[in-house]
Amino acid sequence: MTLPNDAADIGALPEMGDRFATMLKATRPLTPIVTAVVHPCDAASLKGALVAWDQALISPILVGPKARIEKAAVDAGLDISDVEIVASEHSHDSARKAVELVHAGRAEALMKGALHTDEVMSEVVHRERGLRTARRMSHIFVLDVPRYSKPLLISDAAINIFPDLQTKADIIQNAIELGHALGVDLPKVAILSAVETIYPKIPSTVEAGALCKMADRGQITGGLLDGPLAFDNAVSKDAAEAKGIVSDVAGDPDILIAPDLEAGNMIAKQLMYLAGAESAGIVMGARVPVMLTSRADGTLSRLISAALAQLVVHHRLGKTIL
């Protein structure tokens, strides 16, 4: 790839924690995945795509208004002369054409650029022309928390506002699939609530118990579930032992399942802003992974989101989503 005048800035990887560094290293043997970058009309989304390309995570196709993309590249000093551009009229058209690239077999993943999440997802979830599967789509934050020994997955914090029981089962199954793609054979899933006992006045505790029984009966597979668990005894062995909780999940989860979007969003962002966690994000449950970062996210978040998508695509080779 030909780099622009600020090649030192583009080529240098951002600083990252040990968990993300290990994750990035795991992608080295893999071939890049062809990725439709949706409406990359600003420096942040263009740079994120180019850095992911430079690290052999993706082969980008830029989908958006050609003149705006080229102006953004010039303004940011970025060289996109070797990158294919699929022209669109506006952001909604960018999302539609990116999804069409998936249907045409030309793209293996989507990466969100400088547009609203609902603009991308409205096309992804469209009943006729979208990328639906039998499973409900959900967003998964992947965090590198300095004081935690492994990547921590949190779901759902961006798509399903008040998920019902079946939606929570799909949220869990999506997160387990991502855990498998990250190399965890039996992801440990903590289903969160305010307390660690089933209490009928708190519906999330009842649903947590039902979800564990669904796993016992094979309705959720591939992971080890426990819940309800309060946040403290979910992530701290000392807190779990102090409350007399005997569990293979408590104190050592790979995945935290929030009772609703508000709780999940707060948990993830508290870890980011108060505990110094680094974050990436991906949507699972669609025909292809969707890298769903905030427009304010930096290069690291976009880079690791691309690594997640690459790991998922290669994990799915020869498989179909249930």
Descriptive report:
With 322 residues, the protein is α/β, with parallel strands linked by helices. The protein has two domains: 133 residues, Rossmann fold, CATH 3.40.50; 150 residues, Isopropylmalate Dehydrogenase (3-Layer(aba) Sandwich). Helices cover 41% and strands 17% of the residues. It has an eleven-stranded mixed β-sheet, sandwiched between helices. β7, α8 and β8 form a beta-alpha-beta unit. The two termini are 38 Å apart.
What is CATH's topology name of the largest domain?
Answer: Isopropylmalate Dehydrogenase
Biggest sheet strand order reads 3-2-1-4-11-10-5-6-9-7-8
Please mark out the parts with pLDDT under 50 across 5 or more consecutive residues, or reply none. 1-9
Tell me which CATH architecture of the largest domain applies here: 3-Layer(aba) Sandwich
Look at the structure and name the CATH superfamily of the largest domain: Isopropylmalate Dehydrogenase
How many beta-strand runs?
11
Return the average pLDDT rounded to an integer: 93
Q: Report the CATH C-level class of the largest domain.
A: Alpha Beta
* SSE pattern: HHEHEHEHEHEEHEHEHHEHEEH
Q: For the CA atoms, what is the radius of gyration?
A: 20 Å
Q: Any idea what the shape is?
A: globular
Estimated helix fraction? 40-55%
Compute the number of helices. 12
What count of domains describes the coordinates?
Answer: 2
Kindly, what is the distance between the CA atoms of the first and last residues, rounded to a whole number of angstroms? 38 Å
